[in-house]
């Protein structure tokens, strides 16, 4: 009974967030507008977060153009027959999101059965709290929903598997992530070119 009630509550929360969601194109336009207005999404409008938004706009522009998907993976995604939604929680200042959201979009564009929707974390706290990572509101967080049953069938984020291993190992040794490590992580994203994320996202389609 408790599980049924929790599932019903989660479905209502997801439904409410979907009503406020935007397409990836609309999200990209929002970020560009924020950059023009020297602002950022989210509750905090600090100078540092505004700077990250500007940087992330450039990152997403680059990845939108350069993410490559192999022919074999294109076929796998095109052959996916379920009707699903990928609902992603994010904010414009999030560095991991800037690397990952263009990859999500690249795959979603291959199959009209995948509806890619975006919501802002700070405007959807109830949804975020349903999909915490180790108790934290880490983003981006992709929630995969079966549109026929409205069931959550998987989740991805806030980082690809290899990046998660790097972060966990560093935290275990040093206790917290340093600016130097964060630079190393950005270099990993640039070298990986979205390929680990592609493999992780394919598992949501299996």
Describe the structure.
The chain is α+β, with helices and mostly antiparallel strands and 206 residues long. The protein has one domain: Glutaredoxin. Helix content is 56%, strand content 13%. It contains nine helices and five strands. It has helices at 2-19, 24-36, 47-66, 71-78, 95-108, 125-130, 161-174, 179-192, 195-203; strands at 22-23, 84-90, 114-120, 141-146, 152-156. It has a five-stranded mixed sheet. Strand 2, helix 5 (95-108) and strand 3 form a beta-alpha-beta unit. The radius of gyration is 17 Å and the shape is globular.
Radius of gyration: 17 Å
CATH architecture: 3-Layer(aba) Sandwich
Q: What name does CATH use for the topology?
A: Glutaredoxin
Please give the alpha-carbon distance between the first and last residues.
Answer: 30 Å
Structural class: alpha+beta
CATH homologous superfamily, by name? Glutaredoxin
The low-confidence runs, each spanning 5 or more residues with pLDDT under 50, are none
Read across the widest sheet, the strand sequence of neighbours is 1-3-2-4-5
Provide mean pLDDT, rounded.
Answer: 96
What global shape is seen?
A: globular
In total, the number of strands is: 5
């Amino acid at each position: 009974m408790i599980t049924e009630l929790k599932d019903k509550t989660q479905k209502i929360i997801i439904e409410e967030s979907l009503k406020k969601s935007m397409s990836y194109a609309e999200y990209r336009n929002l970020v560009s507008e924020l950059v023009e207005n020297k602002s950022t999404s989210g509750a905090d409008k600090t100078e540092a977060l505004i700077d990250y938004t500007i940087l992330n706009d450039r990152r997403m522009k680059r990845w939108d153009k350069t993410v490559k998907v192999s022919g074999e993976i294109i076929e796998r995604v095109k052959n996916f027959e379920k009707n699903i939604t990928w609902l992603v929680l994010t904010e414009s200042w999030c560095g991991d999101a800037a690397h990952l959201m263009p990859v999500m979009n690249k795959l979603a564009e291959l199959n009209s059965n995948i509806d890619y929707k975006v919501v802002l974390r700070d405007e959807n706290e109830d949804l975020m709290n349903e999909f915490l990572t180790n108790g934290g509101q880490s983003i981006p967080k992709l929630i995969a929903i079966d549109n026929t049953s409205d069931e959550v069938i998987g989740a991805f984020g806030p980082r690809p598997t290899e990046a998660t291993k790097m972060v966990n190992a560093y935290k275990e040794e040093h206790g917290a992530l340093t600016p130097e490590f964060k630079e190393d992580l950005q270099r990993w994203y640039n070298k990986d070119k979205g390929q680990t994320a592609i493999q992780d996202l394919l598992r949501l389609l299996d």
